[in-house]
# Entry
Amino acid sequence: MSKFRKQQQQQKVKTYDVNYFYNQRHSGRKTYIPQNALNVLNIRTKINMNVKKERLEKLKTFNKAELEKKINGNLNKLSKDNIKPITTIIKAILEEKKDVLLDYTVKNLLNKAISQPTFCDLYAEVYQNFHSNESKTVFDKIFKDLINLLENKYEMGMLDKNYDLFCKNVQDKTRFIGLFNFITSLYHINIVDRTTLGYYIDYLFNKLESEDTDTEKYIECLCKFLTKINDKKIFEEKLEVLKRLKGEKDRISARYRFMIMDLLDLYKKM
# Structure
């Protein structure tokens, strides 16, 4: 093909960008567009419509149970070595389906954190990666619901007579302490602020002042909570109360008074 004919063919090819069509549409003038250009536009329109249709079909066939299973399975495999890829997977799922999976994810994460204290800091790190105002609202509600659920009060006579009730009380106590353990993990990575932390500390101290309470459960929780926080200023704010509790021999058994003594010894070393 000669150079002249190539130039002729190149001159016959006309291109139309988006701005051209936009300007023509709003100009009010009738414009001739070659049929071959219209054919291309029709093909592209059909492709775009098919893509949108496929997306709608995916939404219709969305399986919540499968994604919940995937989130749970990844959390079950969590370790120091794989925390980054697992966090990436969970975050990606939530970005697509946060409206239907956020509650499940926060509740699942929180339940695992309080029942597996060894991995508590890892679960806190996972939560940090999708933490937002929305997730905070969900977390606060679930946390308070769990506190209310685990605040079961049993008379010692009931526990002595009913072994199943005794086991449930021990389990509830472990999970209750786990809740506050998770709060300290979140505090150390700046998810829980000082004001919120103070609220939970006051909650535990107020429970200890109540006559109708499982004193020993709250003392153990408080001692582990303050030990992990390891903040001298917070200790100083509650020092007199701790000293008073240490001397309450009639209400608090020796084992739990020793926990308070260990806490006061920790303060002296700060």
Residues 159 and 165 are 6 Å apart (CA to CA). The radius of gyration is 31 Å.
